[in-house]
């Protein structure tokens, strides 16, 4: 069994490059997998490992100045959901496309999961899903607005196009959510900057809601997309029913896999017509190597640029 930790915190980091080297060295010692993004504005990532090693990795992260209270959500998997460790330097640890938006300066009100249901059922609340369109399609809160974005950096333009009135900006409650809390936290900073007065976001995101709220009382519908090989999780945090296309990394269903446009490990109906014959041939070769590695009970990590069409 592997333990998984999704973590983030907005807090100023003076030397991201030095911290990158330190984290990589310590995590390799502990056989930790996954991805950590390091930037001047903070840390963001999801990592996995054996429970005792993951606990040591989290202890190390918390030892970093001002990160002792970093937001963490835990889950588990029978197989390791990651195949390598990546510690990346980023200008933004979650990309909204405007570096002037700084959650270290101001953010909206955090809403605990126990108070979330009452908020989103209030007639004066505008409920916005800040995730991508394909995430929304797998599952979301009842009656939430889908901005139909492919990437988070499209969110500010969507807000602009809504032409919210001054009355709405002053009096309507804006309630936002995302998987782990980081996107809606940054979005809340953006909306406050744009003049919204009652901006709120789900503390710890959907994962924290799943952990704290009984499924019988839940207002969530469907499953929740996660950015690892589990693809999606259910309300009880167990692995969901979706698979993943390794050509475009999009979630796929059994219906998708029965399509003539589906080739295992190569393409699905979403990306079949977006890849060349040469790309499909390369993916087929990769899938063959993956299958051979599995027969030998080995791990095949694939090319570093495995995601060809869409990324988070």
Characterize this entry briefly.
With 312 residues, this protein is of the alpha/beta class. The protein is built from 10 helices and 15 strands.
Report what the structure shows:
The chain is globular, with a radius of gyration of 20 Å. Strand 9 (173-177), helix 7 (182-193) and strand 10 form a beta-alpha-beta unit. The chain has helices at 16-29, 51-63, 113-120, 133-138, 155-161, 166-171, 182-193, 205-212, 254-257, 277-295, and strands spanning 2-10, 33-39, 42-49, 71-77, 85-89, 109-111, 125-129, 139-141, 173-177, 199-202, 220-222, 224-225, 232-233, 243-244, 251-252. The strands form 5 sheets. The protein has a 5-stranded mixed sheet with strand order 4-1-3-2-5. A 4-stranded parallel sheet has the order 6-10-9-7. A two-stranded antiparallel ribbon has the order 8-11. The protein contains 10 helices and 15 strands. The chain is an alpha/beta fold. The chain folds into 3 domains: 2-89, 2-Layer Sandwich (Alpha-Beta Plaits), CATH 3.30.70.100; 109-222, Oxidized Rhodanese, domain 1; 243-295, no CATH class.
Structural topology:
Elements: E1 2-10, H1 16-29, E2 33-39, E3 42-49, H2 51-63, E4 71-77, E5 85-89, E6 109-111, H3 113-120, E7 125-129, H4 133-138, E8 139-141, H5 155-161, H6 166-171, E9 173-177, H7 182-193, E10 199-202, H8 205-212, E11 220-222, E12 224-225, E13 232-233, E14 243-244, E15 251-252, H9 254-257, H10 277-295
Parallel strand pairs: 2-5, 6-10, 7-9, 9-10
Antiparallel strand pairs: 1-3, 1-4, 2-3, 8-11, 12-13, 14-15
């Amino acid at each position: 069994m592997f333990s998984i930790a999704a973590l983030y915190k907005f807090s100023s980091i003076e030397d991201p490059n030095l911290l990158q080297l330190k984290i990589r060295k310590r995590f390799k010692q502990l056989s930790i997998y996954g991805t950590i993004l390091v930037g001047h504005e903070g840390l963001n990532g999801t990592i996995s490992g054996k429970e005792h090693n993951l606990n040591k990795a989290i202890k190390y992260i918390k030892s970093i100045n001002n990160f002792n209270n970093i937001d963490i959500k835990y889950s588990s998997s029978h197989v390791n959901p990651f195949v390598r460790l990546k510690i990346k330097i980023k200008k933004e640890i979650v990309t909204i496309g405007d570096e002037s938006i700084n959650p270290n300066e101001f953010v909206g009100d955090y809403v605990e999961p126990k108070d979330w249901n009452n908020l989103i059922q209030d007639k004066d609340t505008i409920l916005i899903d800040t995730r991508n369109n394909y995430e929304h399609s797998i599952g979301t809160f009842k009656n939430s607005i889908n901005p139909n974005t492919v990437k988070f950096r499209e969110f500010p333009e969507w807000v602009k196009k809504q032409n919210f009135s001054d009355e709405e900006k002053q009096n309507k409650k804006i309630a936002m959510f995302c998987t782990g809390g980081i996107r809606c936290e940054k979005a809340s900073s953006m909306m406050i900057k744009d003049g919204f007065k009652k901006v709120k976001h789900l503390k710890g995101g959907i994962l924290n809601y799943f952990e704290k709220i009984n499924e019988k009382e839940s207002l969530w519908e469907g499953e929740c997309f996660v950015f690892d090989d589990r693809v999606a999780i259910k309300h009880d945090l167990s692995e969901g029913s979706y698979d993943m296309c390794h050509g475009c990394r999009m979630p796929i269903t059994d219906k998708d896999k029965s399509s003539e446009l589906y080739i295992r490990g190569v393409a699905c109906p979403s990306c079949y017509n977006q890849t060349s014959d040469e790309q499909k041939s390369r993916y087929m070769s990769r899938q063959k190597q993956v299958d051979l590695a599995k027969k030998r009970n080995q791990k095949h990590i694939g090319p570093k640029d495995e995601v060809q069409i869409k990324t988070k």
